[in-house]
Structure formats: structure tokens, C-alpha cells
Design goal:
CATH topology of the domain at 21-116: GTP Cyclohydrolase I, domain 2
Shape: globular
Oligomer: single chain
Strand order of the largest sheet: 2-3-5-6
Pathway: tRNA modification; tRNA-queuosine biosynthesis
Strand content: 35-45%
Number of helices: 2
Main location: cytoplasm
Active site: 34 (thioimide intermediate), 41 (proton donor)
Largest sheet: 4 strands, antiparallel
Structural class: alpha+beta
Family: Belongs to the GTP cyclohydrolase I family. QueF type 1 subfamily.
Number of strands: 6
CATH class of the domain at 21-116: Alpha Beta
Catalytic activity: 7-aminomethyl-7-carbaguanine + 2 NADP(+) = 7-cyano-7-carbaguanine + 2 NADPH + 3 H(+)
Length: 139
Amino acid sequence: MPSRPTKELEIFPNPTPARDYHIHMEIPEFTCLCPKTGQPDFATLILDYIPDKRCIELKSLKLYIWSYRNENAFHEAVTNRIVDDLTAALKPRYLRLTAKFFVRGGIFTNIIVEHRKSGWKPLPLVELGKFEGQSTTRG
């Protein structure tokens, strides 16, 4: 596995594909560049997904996120691109990415993008908001 930024996402087989379960990740060090000013934009990414047959390998996710450090990207575009790439690699039952960008010009921007596999309906006990308020990062 590489140890530099890469757009390559590695996956591994879901150990329990017969069960719906929620994977929650917080990535507090996302950085990209503002395409207007060239200044860095910082965000905490919150990734929630319910895997189908695949799970994301954590180091590859870290290197993938790192690959945006020197790229120009609007908040909305980069959040959607990350969801597209994760969805293509994982083919999850459900995926939500929340990008909480740090203040810029006195404005905090939060972008929330969701993907739901066609025909998938969550069981009644799935509560994706369960982790709210428990974050050790910007909450």
C-alpha cells in the first residue's frame, strides 16, 4: 500500500454482509484549496455508511482524503466527488458524508450528501444520528 496521497481506495469484504450495521468515522484533517483565492479550506468529514458486500480500508481512506490537500475545489463539488468515489468503491446500502468546513468570511458551511442503494430500506432500529453530540472533534 502506498504511503503518499492517492485517489485509490482499497476495500475488503464485509465480514457480516447479512446484517445491517452502521460504520461511523470522523476525519478531522480534511484540507483542499479555495479555487477563488488559493487559500486552504479545512473541514471535518463525518462518514456514516451501512456496508453491503464491501468495507473501506482505513489507511487507503486516509491517503485518499490527503490527496485533496493541494487541489482546488468548491465545498459542494468536493463533497459530492468524495461521495461518488466512495459509492463506486463500496457500493454501500447507505452512505452519508457530512463536510463541516471551518469558518470562511464569517460563515460556517456544512455540506451533507447521501446515497441510498436502490430498493434498500433501513430496519426500524437504524439510528444514524446516534453519535451526534459525542464527537471529540468540532461538533
